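Why do we bother with a discrete structure alphabet at all? Because it lets us treat a fold like text: something you can write down, compare, and reason about line by line. To make this less abstract, here is a complete entry for FAD-dependent monooxygenase. Read it the way you would read a sentence in a foreign language you are learning: slowly, and without expecting to understand everything at once.
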Amino acid sequence: MRVSVIGAGLGGLCLAQGLRGAGIDVDVYERDPAITARFQGYRLVLSPTGFEALHGCLPPRWHPLLDAIVDDTRVERLVLDTRLNKVGELGPARSGLVVDRHVLRHLLLTGLDVHTGAALTGYDVLNGEDGKNGKGGKDGKGDEAAKVQAHFAQGASPAPADLLVGADGVNSAVRALLTPQTVPTDTGVRFVIGRTPMTERFAALSHAWGAKIAGDGVSLLLGAMRFRIPPKQAAEELAPEVTLPDTGDYVRWAMILPPNSSLGEQNPQQAVLSRIKGWHPDLQALIEQADTDNSTLLSIRVVEPRERWAPGPVTLLGDAIHATSPTGGNGANTALRDADLLRRCLIPAAAGTRGLLDAVGDYETQMLEYGAEAVRFSLEALPAYVAKPQSV
């Protein structure tokens, strides 16, 4: 069996590692011109389900390294005013493991064959062992052996495979072809996200980790990323074949702006600073000392799974089919869950003890159900994080 994965995000790479470990041939195709073309380095919180999925897809010899580059966190989820006084609560305290997306992505890239500059333009579904349209061979359970061939821009060679997996994010080219009626919905919410190196001064803001700091029409969310062992050092000591970035502890911050906001002529850092005048001096210093190269304005868009597409050798994973609002804290975790589930469904299909289409259908049935629930949960959580104007 050969699988083509479109998209080198966390979900697609996790799937590729899991298939590789199961002895299934896999290629990853990424539209970006290089793996490091875009910064993808903010912290995320791993749920028990997400962490278990990672463990399932990664080689066991890397498990100690994964354990070393995550950290436990417990946050009280308070509502604070702009002087950092408690004025309310968002809900029960939350615990989990935090990991840096950039570091985790480099771990997941290790040993994989990733084709960059490969923008998907289309695919053909083919039947038959000879790879041509028409009647053909049978798989282990008697289903028609469906094949698929992906096509890419700029004259890149077509990629034949038994299964094509669209793991190419909220703007998925695979989804647009497979289920064109499923499109992203813009919530109208905009936020600026960035990171600032951790210092003793900022470490003292620990009561604000996981809190919403509510201002006039904006809110600021803070989270700490600390490593049990610095990632580069951890890889050198625990898995020398892995090269991880030399990333230090930092504070991740995100400011949620009024609906449909733009930055105008300001850069992201300036836009935040202009909205926190008079706030606690530690918060102003946090933004002033931010890594300006890695601060950006993002929109919150969601993709809600709707009608089931026709069964075949093409499927979807992660944000391509169930993009969530980050306020749900479940986007990456759900993508990792997809990867592990699809891996487990494909192993017997690769062994010839189960039909491929049956295996993919089982994956889709489960994924669409919990994926839709993840989107609903994230949207229900969104209003609590959006600050209301304090004056008219």
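What the structure line is telling us, in plain words: The CA atoms of residues 154 and 317 lie 25 Å apart. The longest helix spans residues 356-381.
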